[in-house]
């Protein structure tokens, strides 16, 4: 099976469409959508409906913190731009779309893999995995070999040996990485809709379960149009500038 891993779309239609086109071109058999479908961007209704259609066709989807904030109201810990975007988004979605977000699970375990937005040890607390210590903690909280997560917008890969040694590295786009199941792996595909590593191209990854290979990908998209729509919607202009900068 070839499993497409997509996360942190953040209501960015242009990025999501570009990624889905690439996913199809690479022959993916299935999709795993790792949360934060809304927030920041100008097309929440379109993105939620596209996610709903993919889920209806068998895709895995889990809840992100921005999805929960749209359902419950923004958290005080969110920055002001994020809070404004959440409040705006709440007015753009109908009851069925909000209900879909509300019913998303925090975790899904399938195909011997764990799918979660933030981490395995406290998925509802939204703690970031930004280094080896957090990756070890997450991997120790589950028995599966592969954990796929979002929340952190930069692509990153961690592995834990049977002797408890952790390693991490930043992957090169388009280069297949052997991910043998005798280790545990914590995979961050990077954000499709708001990359933050200085590269504005959308992120996604492809997991080949037969070959035990993982390939990270970057996809250029029309970030100028996505930014224009953010400004036209009355959302903070800085959110559009971040798309152009990859920040």
UniProtKB/TrEMBL annotation:
* Gene3D superfamilies, sorted: 3.60.21.10
Q: Where is the Calcineurin-like phosphoesterase domain?
A: 1-209
Q: Which domain of life is it from?
A: Bacteria
InterPro entries, per database record? Ap4A_hydrolase (IPR050126), Calcineurin-like_PHP_lpxH (IPR024654), Metallo-depent_PP-like (IPR029052), Pesterase_MJ0912 (IPR011152)
Give the GO cellular component terms, alphabetically: cytoplasm
A GO MF annotation of the entry reads: phosphatase activity
Any Pfam family matching the protein: Metallophos_2
Give the family per the record: Belongs to the metallophosphoesterase superfamily. YfcE family.
Q: Which PANTHER family match?
A: BLL5683 PROTEIN, METALLOPHOSPHOESTERASE
The protein in question is named Metallophosphoesterase
